[in-house]
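PT: before anyone asks, these are the final sequences, not the draft ones from last week. 1019 residues across everything. Please model them as a single complex and drop the result in this thread when it's through.
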Amino acid sequence: MLPPAPALDAATTPSGFLLVLSIAIPIAGVLLAFVLGDRYVRLVAFAMVPLELAITVTIVAAVPHSTGPLVYLLGAWPPPLGVALRVDGLAAVMLAATAVVISAVAVYAGAEFSVTTTKARAPFVFWILLLAVWAALNAIFVGGDLFTLYVALELLTFAAVPLVSLDGRPETLRAAIRYLLFALLGSVLYLLGTALLYGLHATLDIVLLSHRIGAEPASLVAAALMTSGLLAKTALFPLHLWLPPAHAGAPAAGSAILSGLVVKGSFFIIVRLWFQVMPGLPGFAATQLLAALGAAAIVFGSVLALRQERLKLLIAYSTLAQIGYLFLMFPLAFNGSGHLESGGALAGGLLQAASHATAKAAMFMAAGSIYAGLGHDRITGLGGIARVLPLSVLAFAFAGIALIGVQPSGASLAKDLLLQAATERQQWWWAVVLQAGGVFTAAYVLLVLAHALAPPDKPVVLTGPAPRLGDVAALVLALCSLLLGLVPWEPYLPVPYISPPDLSGLGTLSKSLLPVLGGVVLAILLSPRPHPFASSVRWKVAIGMLNRFRRGCCAFSSYVERGNGVLCEWPAASTCLLMLALLFSVLMLVAA
Amino acid sequence: MSIETVIEIVLAAVVLTLGVWTIVVPETFSATVGFVAYGLLVALIWVRLDAADVALTEAAIGGGLGGVLLLGAAARLRDADMMADARPGKLLRAGAAALSVLTAAVLAGVVLLLPDPAPTLAPAAVANAWATGLSNPVTNVLMAFRAMDTMLEKVVLLLAIIGVWSLAPDSAWGGRPGPRHQADPRGVLAFLARLLPPVGIVIGIYILWTGSDHPGGAFQGGAILASMWLLAIMAGLADTPLVSHRSVRFILVAGPGLFLLVGLAGLLFGAAFLSYPPALAKPLILGIEIAMTLTIAATLGLLLAGAPERSTEP
Amino acid sequence: MSGVTVFGLCAAAAVGLGLYGLITNPQPLRKIIAFNLLGSGVFLLFGVVGRRGAAAGMGNDPVPQALVITGVVVAFSATALAIALLLRLFQTSASVARSGRASPGDDPDQVGG
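LR: through. Structure below.
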């Protein structure tokens, strides 16, 4: 009997052992911290974070020097019998984004989660889970086998759920249960797909599968089940019922991790599935459906964000909208020969994921500082905080500007790449959605900033000391997102040539101003509460003329809210999940 | 139609009837009992599918510990309607039923469409068994070919413990999980708790030991040990441990810890991470499995015991 | 009709049943039970796939068997975590309801829910 036929890239590459360490180090940290107990958890985490950061840097530096992906065969067993770890450019980008965000969160949380005699529980859980999230995400980015990815995905869920309910209030417990149950439903559908794929091809290795998979109906059904299960875990509209309460209820550092990173794990597996396992199978209609859900997510998430009273909920709904943005790349990557092409659109999507990770984590961290300072996070009560918490507001502002897509942010480069792909593929309608997304983002960011910069009704009294170091961490993270467009991406992502960002030109100025102006108008029209914009007399006249129109818009947004309420009922959302699974099956079967 | 097929059809029909009962019966407690019976019969299906290792696991979990977990929860949550969502309307229920039937039908169709002869890794797994010296191929897959999955899964178990403990009130952090059980020292429970554990421990160790060559292994053995421990706790013969106790923490990480250490030793001195030198493979794997059995027994027991409720000070 | 086919159809039906229960049952504990039913259907499908791949003297392909054992452990952990959350919610909402009668309304500035 011969040993199993080796895969095409079935040999460990020289620096492949780093991939093992990227998973093993945080796991070792989890085990060590668990044994050493309360007093040493933070110390262990602070020791592991720089170590893991160094390993990530080494991996990212090694990728451009390798001809193919970095590969490691676990136990020296080649697939299909064994499991391989692989790092390509896409994985390297996500590894780097994760490392940056987690390091910043660790600095931010250093003060909040220090162990005292009265509270040992929350720090113990937080630091261990921080390391566990890192291990799980790295396993997802590096894993080359669909079942290993399943276990890693579950690891991620188990690390994320207790973060939601860390404070133990009934609302957060309820949010955690809902999150856990819906995530479990998603992962069961994913597992169902892997069972079918194994039955068809006797392997779950991504590279081997990509060679064996064809347009068999069973493969397509499997892909549809896996995709919809992963969408439930990514909280793409209309499967988002669990996200806002979970992300807004966690402590700020936890929210930063959940919103910035955890949803990207399942998103990344969808990318692997569609672009690498079966680039030729989804077909035009399925990619359009995916992006249509994304467009709906942008509208729903943004409109709802504008209606929130609390800053953390606004940011959580913004995550909902930004997740939608991530799915616009799928139809734009669909080329003339019916394949999903790993080109500019994919690069744009991944860049968007990395810039959202950094910017959104920074936003939640800034919001956490504001909450800690004021003792509340009512948006209308933010007046005057720019003077007492300048660093927090600045971090929020930078993160917001980065998200809107002002040059040279990562989001702006991503938008350029996607717009270019939309022109090439002649799908102008996604260009409209892309531009509208920027305007919507500007609307809710400006709404918050307008309140924060407005003069206070009464003198602001801080309830706690401003966490200086934490604010610096948030600011650095926001700056990262703002400067991502300047990074040379060519070694990692398939970036086609686009003209280098021109920071002074008139075109750039107008490109940045248009979403801002549009955002101001939208914020006035769609936010139901009194505006700081409307405080001066001249504005009042202008807004008086707009009033009838504004009433119409508010009616629209309250309809959106009511519709969202229906979709966030458990039976409706889970029915949507099943319908999506069947719809994707049908669309792929028709295309095949 | 052969007599075997008839038996299989009857078995499948009974299992499905129990499944329907579990879903539609109004009382939660009856549903739980239905699910336990369902789990035990599913173990029989696994025997029929010639997968004895899975059958043992399914019986230990589906019918055994999982049943205890669900029954305990059902007993404590008797009047828990305040946590329920709104009951969906008739239309929505009909829609959900239609979609579920459709999904099941699609799956059934796919099952019928699976290729014949089926692709398989069984020959490859058998041909490479030399590398470990163990003759149970399932153990080989779990401990050698796909050892990474097994290690990550053990970390999942640990995270589940951390997640459960994270729900403790701050005042009880580090304390003992669950209420202190008191049973009549001359009652049936105490009698069983004295009688069964010695037998159970022997069986648990046997199942671990035999797992290298026959069906069985760390998980199944650990599950039996855990149930013996729980029996002693429920009879009041033992108390749940302090979760802050160093030795408890140590036992809970022993399995994945040793796995990781052996894996890293392979990375440094051997062929690869999680590879075993052929001469040492069998003792190394057995060592890991012994540590894992202890860890699994402790983890399963503590998962059932729940979050710490009693503080360190009595 | 062979045994494999019978159990394959049984697995598909268990998945359908579990899905229906998970969608329509309002009680969280019943949702957890339905999730377990759904999971056991998926595992059975792996078993059927493995049984079809019987070869080399093995009655069932060992790889899917190993995947199922891993999956069962993960599903059990999930059940335990979900039930712990549920019991904790039961305790806290009971105590909030009790204290709520004494001092109506909890802190309106807290985010959540």
